[in-house]
């Protein structure tokens, strides 16, 4: 069986060496050949920016933030479109999920409620977290009971939950969506707040959401500043070059069973202040961002295939 060897390259440096004879000078002599071993994998990892894939949906960062492309005026519900992300099976996004007015009102609610002490946040490494309806207990990956040790549900809780479940009478989601109407009910909301005025660098380390306490589908509503989310697959030979998806304002993202089981590294926010969308456009400067993650707690035992996956991670 062949032995797998570490990829190694060498850096060659020519150094002038002084002659030891009396006739020599300090700046003359034969060159000295220096060969310094270098780990190619390490170099590629730390110079991946020039080789990384372009961001999926990067053009949306330059579109107007005031326009609802799929809005419908007059009688009947407003229609918004869900589209699958072909590069990441099981992942979908919905543009213009909330209106500009709804977006601004939600951001104002969180900023004001935290400043006046109405909400009790949990401080984690490089981000602030709020739990609603049910508390997710970090470290042990457990879900608390309804109404136990959580903040009071925000004003938008009911209508946003209904809209995500596609049961909102005023807004209808059309296109490919991870579940049918009435077949999925969210009962837990985690809000992550990233404030660069209070934290030098905000972000979340690579991870996969816990399988044991939650059902398959995860729904994320992105508000405020845009950012980039990375996805890497367990069988991807180019895992150092993950699929990079743009999270723009007023957009909903949903991850279903396929994406959760097949994606081993999901970095919601790499810990930095800027994102590179493409080598042809300027860097994206991050600002205040709010991410609303909606999930459903499990009512039955976790399946075996999830156990092995969770342990491996």
Account of the 3D structure:
The protein has helices spanning about 40-45, 100-115, 155-165, 255-260, 305-310; strands at about 10-15, 30-40, 80-85, 90-95, 120-125, 125-130, 135, 140-145, 170-175, 190-195, 220-225, 225-235, 245, 250-255, 265, 275, 285, 290-295. With about 325 residues, it is α+β, with helices and mostly antiparallel strands. The chain has two domains: about 10-40, no CATH class; about 50-310, Alpha-ketoglutarate-dependent dioxygenase AlkB-like (Jelly Rolls, Sandwich). The chain has a nine-stranded mixed sheet. A three-stranded antiparallel sheet has the order 13-12-15. Strand 3 and strand 4 form a beta hairpin. The longest helix has 16 residues, at about 100-115. It starts with 7 loop residues before the first strand and ends with a helix. One of its GO terms (molecular function) is demethylase activity.
Labels describing this entry:
313 residues; alpha+beta; Jelly Rolls; nine-stranded mixed β-sheet; three-stranded antiparallel β-sheet; 5 helices; 30% strand; globular; disordered C terminus
Taking all Cα atoms into account, the compactness measure Rg is 25 Å
Main-sheet strand order equals 5-6-10-18-11-14-4-3-9
- Principal-axes geometry comes out as globular
Helix tally equals 5
Portion in beta strands: 25-35%
Task: Give the averaged pLDDT, no decimals.
Answer: 69
Q: Helix- and strand-based class?
A: alpha+beta
Q: Tell me about the largest β-sheet.
A: 9 strands, mixed
Order of helices and strands: EEHEEHEEEEHEEEEEEHEEEEH
Q: What is the count of β-strands? A: 18
CATH architecture of the largest domain: Sandwich
Instruction: Give the termini separation.
Output: 28 Å
- The total number of structural domains is 2
Enter the CATH topology name of the largest domain: Jelly Rolls
Which residues sit in consecutive blocks of at least 5 with pLDDT less than 50?
17-26, 64-73, 257-269, 304-313
- Fraction of residues in helix: 10-25%
According to CATH, the homologous superfamily of the largest domain is Alpha-ketoglutarate-dependent dioxygenase AlkB-like
CATH class of the largest domain: Mainly Beta
Protein name: 2OG-Fe(II) oxygenase superfamily
InterPro entries: AlkB-like_sf, ALKBH4
GO molecular function: demethylase activity; oxidoreductase activity
């Amino acid at each position: 069986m062949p032995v797998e060897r570490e990829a190694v390259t060498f850096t060659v440096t020519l150094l002038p060496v002084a002659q030891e004879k009396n006739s020599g000078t300090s700046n003359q002599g034969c060159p000295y050949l220096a060969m310094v071993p270098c780990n190619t994998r390490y170099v590629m990892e730390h110079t991946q920016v020039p080789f990384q894939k372009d961001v999926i949906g990067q053009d949306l960062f330059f579109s107007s933030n005031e326009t609802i492309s799929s809005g419908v005026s007059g009688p009947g519900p407003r229609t918004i479109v869900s589209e699958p992300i072909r590069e990441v099976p099981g992942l979908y996004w919905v543009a213009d999920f909330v209106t500009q007015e709804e977006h601004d009102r939600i951001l104002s609610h969180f900023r004001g409620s935290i400043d006046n002490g109405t909400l009790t946040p949990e401080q984690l490494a490089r981000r602030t977290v709020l739990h609603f309806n049910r508390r997710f207990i970090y470290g042990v990956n457990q879900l608390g009971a309804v109404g136990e040790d959580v903040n009071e549900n925000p004003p938008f809780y009911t209508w946003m939950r209904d809209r995500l479940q596609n049961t909102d009478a005023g807004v209808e989601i059309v296109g490919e969506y991870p579940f049918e109407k009435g077949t999925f009910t969210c009962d837990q909301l985690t809000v992550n707040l990233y404030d660069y005025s209070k934290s030098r660098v905000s972000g979340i380390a690579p991870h996969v959401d816990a399988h044991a306490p939650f059902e398959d589908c995860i729904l994320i509503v992105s508000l405020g500043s845009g950012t980039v989310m990375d996805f890497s697959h367990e069988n991807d030979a180019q895992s150092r070059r993950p699929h990079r998806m743009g999270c723009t304002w007023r957009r909903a993202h949903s991850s279903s069973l396929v994406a959760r089981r097949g994606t081993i590294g999901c970095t919601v926010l790499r810990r930095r202040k800027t994102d590179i969308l493409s080598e042809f456009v300027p860097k994206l400067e991050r600002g205040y961002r709010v991410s609303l993650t909606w999930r459903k707690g499990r009512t039955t035992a976790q399946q075996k295939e999830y156990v092995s996956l969770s342990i491996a991670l």
